[in-house]
Amino acid sequence: MIVYTGTNIDIPVVHKKDPIGMSGAIVKKMMADYLGRGHILYTDNWYTSPALCQFLHDNKTGSCGTVRANRKFMPKFNGNKTRVENPSSSDTPDSEEEARPHHERSRKRRKTELFIQNITMLNAYNLWLVKKNIDPSKKPKLREFVYNVAYQLLEDFGEPTTNIKGRRPNPMPDRIIDAYSRHYPVHTEMANGKKKPRDCYVCKHTTRRQKKRTRVVIICNECNIGLCIVGCFRDYHTLKNF
Fold it and tell me: Nearest to residue 40, comparing CAs of 119, 97, 108?
């Protein structure tokens, strides 16, 4: 960021005959450290000009943005057709990347996607460790964290599939399959005139939040385990990994 102070100290003075203009000089100043890396610069119509696009192209940088039709050296627009005074050959690839076979470009893109995914998961893992304030000696491995994220995404958005012909086996446990037909909350048994408390199974064994011990007097009639009536009962009977 460069704060405009009304002087030409930060932005070099542009000669009147220089087609790139003051707006282009600002772009050159801001992009000085990023040219030649294959980036794409997006600009509004105050910056976009044929001269600037040519400068960026010469420095291996893409350009995309809105334009003013009356800009100097701008191609003439006639309805939906555009006439370019000096079109470049469309038969010549613009870069070495475009000259490569399609399968090689696809493989390279896939490697880039996997790299971005790995970096994203690593950042998420580090943020999770900081947020949970986990003891470094007891922290789970990155691979375990990635598996848990994948499992949770599949629970929320995935659908069971199989390559086995015939009747498809249901991978979900009984507590989820019949959650609405046979599983409902009941009070625990009485002891000395009071309901006997139990530990909430979800609070004690959860993998989605910090484990804790919660005493409850509600159990599932079918599973016969203690569950908090709000949240935990629903999670236990709807999520494979709660």
Answer: 97
